Amino acid sequence: MKYSIGIDIGGTKSAVLLGNPKVNGKPDRFILHKEFFETKKAGGPMEVVQRMKDLIRGMLDRKALAVEDIVGIGISCGGPLDSKRGLIMNPPNLLGWDNIPIKRMLEEEFGLPVALENDANACAVAEWKYGAGRGYDNVIFLTFGTGLGAGLILDGRLYRGGSDMAGEVGHVRLERWGPVGYGKMGSFEGFCSGAGIGQLARMKVLEKMENGMSQGLCRGMEDLALLDAKDIAIAADRGDELAIEIYRLCGEQLGRGLAMLVDILNPEIIIIGSIFQRCRHLLWPYAEQVMKREALEASAAACEVVPAQLGEHIGDYAALSLAAYNFGKEEEFEEDESA
After folding, report:
1. What pTM does this model have?
2. How far is CA 218 from CA 18, 77, 133, 195, 197, in A?
3. C-alpha pair distances (Å), 151 with each of 117, 129, 132, 270, 325
4. Residue (of 127, 99, 92) closest to 325 by Cα position
5. Which helix (H) or strand (E) is 115 found in, with range?
6. Per residue in 270-313, pLDDT tens?
């Protein structure tokens, strides 16, 4: 049996994982070992990379595995990055990580092949191979978390584009007005992200307050800045009309963005993570209506839109699946009954 090593690099915390990803969607069984550490507290990039090396060595020793038992290392990290050269190129949540050659550093240390991808691409591979996208050749994964990005599986292959920037759908402007996301007012990310929903809520609440109208989302100006997507979803589930209206606006813009993707890429399935997983009931009725109205009928009929299946474990799958996808063979990954 062969195993993968996965590294999930985040601005707040990072994880190093050892696992066997071929377990038919059972994330509680495929991870042999997992270690978290706080990225910022671990120091700059050189100290973080050294911490990763130490954790990998410790995992191999603990499980009595040799380097020969590992097919490779997969790294999931927020962009921008250069997947071909294996460089992390100063992502906004990783200050000081300027052109860090993480691929070369780990290949030289362990003699294993290393695959680096942005987190949206990595999650797309994970859902395609082990989640809701299994059995499809044309899959779009949308992050819909703090921001909005897409990973594209086209004709059975991960599509990166000419400069590793394919899938930056959050940058597309949907309206001339609206919340700011990815540096643009009214962008897809502005309307369809946690940060954007928070902005939209503050705009709508402020409008009510300045017109002397009642609202139940915050008590006064001092609470306005604290409103976030989770607060609005809880209020919507309680029946708050303004909260429901905010998610209606978000859902309608989601439908507009989905229609664009459906018309351009003609996917078989669009998988949406994070906020959509938790708030599908608040978003999809409006998104579906707009998508079906705006997209070509034949293309919309051929596309299913579903929440991500891997749930809270998707980051684990994302990192581990990159090694399996890039370097493994199907027969090498048998289900580990003991994991």
Report:
1. 0.89
2. 45, 35, 40, 17, 15
3. 10, 13, 14, 10, 15
4. 127
5. strand 114-118
6. 999 999 999 999 999 999 999 999 999 999 999 999 999 988 77
